[in-house]
Design goal:
heterodimer; A: 111 residues; elongated; B: mainly alpha; 3 domains; two-stranded antiparallel sheet; globular
């Protein structure tokens, strides 16, 4: 039987580090990396709860909860991979146009 | 197709719809059509409508068969249902004939009269629209449809009075007519509401049915008084008559059709139509009789001194409408309709004749020159305009009530109804009516004398170039002259010993129910059924009095005003401050100062109130506070809110994260 609390705290810490990175980093590549951290924090919680439910005996309900966590983790990983692909493409496009990957300088949306 | 057109119901639809079609064609395409086409469209549509009206009248209505169209639902809300249905019974059928018949003649006349006008098509489209609205007023089978036509003719009247709108007084006259009529319409609507409140219907047939066993009730009196206020507005009675003389600013054919022959008789039609209600409201009838006779008298006296040829006729119209209301107020409904009928011919004739005079002088004097209408700058025109002169004399004889002309028969019947009453009301009405008849005879022949006889008093060139008008204007004058002479023979008084009363016979079913009620109640308002030797004797006396008055006063007026010396003597007499005539002349010339009094009592305070409201409500409340204020509020608040949009993605993300935390906290707190 797994105690989920320390793992969840770890996930929360990871999430906050990611959020800090997203908000405070100026480099687009680093922001993307921080974003990955946040996604993986979410993944950890999903896997933790999957494990938690699996450890409570295999009846139909617990079985479903356990599998949901597993599936969602896989889903998030797939989406994250796609997102990194698109994100990197955008970063490359922005870099080509502006010759810098500073996020604070791009304020065209305002106008 | 041919079969369809011979169905009475289809013909009845076509009577009002043809002028509407003419209006639409001229209204939409008239500007791009040649003058002759737009005139032809208007004339053909109204003449065809007249043709169908004649067929309907001779084959159906004159044989005692009413024609009605199948109803279709117009509005239906809760307990209030109005069907759109046309009904031609003897009364509405007769008016349908008058409207389309006189309307046709005036359309044809206008082809010549308006020939030089740039807005020819606009004139004809309005005129057609007017005919449509007037036919709806007459042919509708409920008060709601009557009101539709009532407002429609009011609109056309406004548009046509202000037809030459580039001249300010003309458009002011239009506005005056519209506003005064709105006051009357307010009363009319109140009357309709009261009737609906009491009977839950506004359909004539249903009203008559629910009236059959009813007695008189105070609410009927109130409803009738309210309706009479509406009639006062539309038919120019005291105190709302002031718009009609000003309405002469419109083109003369308009004065003839709208402001003499048809529209202004709408009030008389409405009361005659609802006679089964009015007989149960004797107080309201008394009011009608008194207002009518006062109007007849006072308008007649104002007509005595007017210089403008059209103003004389305008006051004469007000006065003759007063005669019709007198007859209605005495319960002599068919007599009122009879006077309406004869008046339509001789007054249209007189107006068209005056139009012919004005037209012939405008060649030289220029359009809109007041001198072309000033009787004291005319004279001796009989050599120049022989046809106009001859037909106008016929019209004047009809108006003055010279024996054997149409006006004699109808006016006499009205005076006789008052004469044989033998009570205070009859006495008052009779004496005012006789005085009004004196005025009528005087101003009619003053007009003829000043205009056509004596010697020319205006600009020499105008006289030299005055020419008889084109044939399209002469023909209607001739036709109308025939009717102005002959229309009276449709109801020959019993005293003549000849029983020939097709007019009264035709209308009797319309008034049968009301008369039956009056007779059963032995009311003073009941019309006599039998002619006793005594009543015939009285009729002779009455006829003798009015004939002597009419002929005597006519000859008197003519002998003064047809001679240059007489005109000069009269002018000197009224100008001399010491003469007894000077003060009354000045009062009459200024129309009893009624316009000035109205201005002081109603118009000025209203203008003041509007000015105050304009500043407080419009400028301050609406413009400053509401319109500019709301704009300012948005501007200021958006200035603040604009700062939030930096365009920097990280700021948005930060707000997003904060929002998420707040939501989470709320979520946990609720949990």
């Amino acid at each position: 039987m797994l105690d989920p609390q320390p793992v969840l705290l770890l996930a929360a810490a990871l999430f906050c580090i990611g959020l800090y990175g997203v908000l405070c980093r100026t480099n687009l590549v680093l922001i993307l990396m921080a974003l990955e951290l946040m996604l993986n924090a979410a993944n950890i919680t999903l896997v933790t709860f999957s494990r938690y439910w699996a450890g409570r005996g295999l009846n139909a309900e617990n079985f479903t909860h356990a599998h949901t966590g597993q599936f969602f983790t896989l889903m998030v990983m797939a989406v994250a991979a796609a997102e990194v692909g698109v994100g990197l493409a955008i970063i490359v496009a922005v870099f080509r146009r502006r010759h810098a990957s500073e996020v604070g300088a791009a304020t065209e949306l305002k106008n | 197709m041919g079969e369809l057109l011979t169905k009475p119901e289809v013909m009845l639809w076509l009577v009002p719809l043809l002028p509407l079609l003419g209006f639409l064609v001229n209204g939409f395409f008239g500007k791009r059509m040649p003058l002759s086409t737009s005139g032809a469209v208007a004339c053909i549509s109204i003449v065809m409508s007249f043709g169908f009206a004649v067929i309907l009248f001779t084959t159906q209505i004159a044989r005692g068969q009413d024609v009605a169209t199948a109803p279709w639902v117009w509005m239906s809300t809760g307990g209030f249902n109005v069907d759109f249905r046309l009904l031609a019974d003897p009364l509405s059928g007769l008016l349908m004939l008058v409207v389309t018949g006189v309307g046709s003649l005036i359309h044809i006349y206008s082809v010549g009269y308006m020939g030089h006008d740039k807005a020819y098509w606009r004139f004809f489209s309005y005129l057609n629209l007017f005919c449509f609205a007037m036919l709806m007023l007459v042919l509708g089978d409920s008060l709601v449809l009557l009101f539709l036509g009532w407002e429609g003719v009011g609109l056309c009247s406004y548009l046509l009075i202000g037809f030459w709108y580039t001249h300010l007084p003309n458009s002011n006259a239009g506005i005056k007519a519209f506003v005064v009529n709105r006051i009357g319409d307010f009363g009319f609507m109140l009357g309709m509401f009261l009737i609906f409140w009491h009977f839950h219907t506004l359909n004539y047939g249903e009203l008559a049915a629910s009236m059959r066993d009813a007695g008189s009730a105070p609410i009927l009196t109130w409803a009738c008084v309210c309706l009479f206020i509406g009639a006062c507005g539309k038919s120019a009675q005291i105190p709302l008559y002031v718009w009609l003389p000003d309405a002469m600013a419109g083109p003369t054919p308009v004065s003839a059709l709208i402001h003499a022959a048809t529209m202004v008789t709408a009030g008389i039609y409405m009361i005659a139509r609802l006679n089964f209600i009015w007989v149960r409201a004797e107080d309201a009838l008394t009011l009608v009789a008194i207002v009518g006779s006062l109007t007849a008298f006072f308008a007649g006296t104002i007509g005595l001194v007017q210089r403008d040829i059209k103003k004389v006729l305008a006051y004469s119209t007000v006065s003759q409408l007063g005669f019709m209301f007198m007859a209605l107020g005495l319960g002599a409904f068919p007599v009122a309709v009879f006077h309406l009928f004869t008046h339509a011919f001789f007054k249209a004739l007189l107006f068209l004749g005056s139009g012919s005079v004005i037209h012939s002088l405008e060649h030289t004097l220029g359009h809109g020159n007041p001198d072309s209408q000033d009787l004291f700058k005319m004279g001796g025109l009989k050599h120049k305009l022989p046809l106009t002169c001859a037909t106008m004399i016929v019209g004047a004889c009809g108006l003055a009530g010279i024996p054997l002309f149409s006006g004699f028969f109808s006016k006499d019947a009205i005076l006789f109804a008052a004469f044989e009453r033998h009570d205070a009301l009859g006495m008052i009405v009779y004496s005012l009516g006789l005085a009004a008849a004196v005025c009528t005879a005087f101003y009619s022949f003053r007009l003829i004398g000043l205009c056509f006889f004596g010697k020319w008093r205006g600009l020499e060139a105008a006289y030299a170039h005055a020419d008889e008008s084109p044939r399209s204007m002469g023909l209607p004058l001739l036709v109308l002259a025939v009717f102005a002479f002959g229309a009276g023979y449709l109801w020959i008084p019993a005293a003549f010993g000849v029983h020939f009363t097709p007019f009264a016979d035709l209308l009797s079913p319309v008034f049968a129910q009301g008369q039956a009620y009056l007779q059963a109640a032995q009311s003073r308002w009941a019309m006599p059924v039998e002619h006793t030797a005594e009543s015939i004797g009285k009729e002779w006396v009455n006829m003798l009095i009015s004939s002597v008055v009419a002929i005597g006063v006519s000859i008197f007026a003519f002998s003064i005003y047809s001679k240059p010396a007489g005109v000069e003597r009269m002018a000197k007499l009224v100008a001399d401050p010491k003469s007894a005539l000077a003060v009354p002349y000045r009062v009459l010339l200024n129309k009893f100062y009624v316009d000035e009094i109205y201005t002081l009592v109603f118009v000025r305070p209203l203008q003041l109130l509007s000015d105050v409201l304009f500043v407080i409500v419009d400028v301050i409340l609406i413009d400053l506070v509401m319109v500019n204020g709301s704009g300012l509020l948005v501007e200021v608040s958006s200035k603040v809110a604009r700062r939030v949009q930096t365009g920097n993605v990280r700021h948005y993300l930060f707000a997003f994260a904060i929002g998420m935390v707040v939501l989470l906290a709320l979520f946990l707190a609720v949990l």
